[in-house]
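Sat 14:20. Reprocessing the chain from the morning session after the first attempt stalled halfway. Input below, unchanged.
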Amino acid sequence: MHEFGVDEAGKGPVLGSMFAAAVAVDPADLPDDVGDSKGIAPARREELAATIREVGAVGVAEISVDRIDDDETDMNSLTVAAHAEAIERLVDAADESPDPDDPHSGYVDACDTNAVRFERRVEDGTDAAVDLRAEHDADETYPVVGAASIVAKVARDAHVDALADRYGAVGSGYPGDGTTRDFLESYVADHDALPPCARESWKTSQDVLAAASQSSLGEFQPDGGRVGGDASGETEVRSDGGSHERTTLDDF
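Finished this time. Tokens:
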């Protein structure tokens, strides 16, 4: 198997799954414009993804909303799992089990401030015999990681398109997207609950629920349901970056 690269897409959105892709290919067979998927137009990404699948072997892993919302884990651990699972699917697709005495070499885009720690965690998370090197912005340095970035982003885009087919306009799924926020607010107003595709642990989701609750209270309370200045209730929610932060009711 040629050298391989691994990258993920969809770590930060409030809607939908995260995807990771592992790609094994001869870099010489890749088009010249393969690189960080964020800098490539969607239509071109799809063309490149099709070419990458033709000239190389590909493994894709999906981390569902249910896994993301699990209280027993965090986004750093899930990103490690996504990379490890993508590598295992790549090994299966390549139909070439690596020899422990001669492991396959690959590059991963580090999703941890400590790149060495990230590569060790990914190696420990897979049963495949691999020798990894993790670097920050590896998708801009190594064409094989850029190829993985493109495949992962195309998988994520297809996932969001499927959500739009089911729910209507959902936007990109990112917290800063007004269409995404409008979709969440409208869905909660109509169903008194978040849609199944929303990451409930994300602060954006909690904000939408809290705003809907306050609006509902305002319909029945003369003062509009406002919380007094001496309120001291606190709740802990996962931020949109995947870590935890302490917030007060004033944040809502």
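The radius of gyration is 21 Å.
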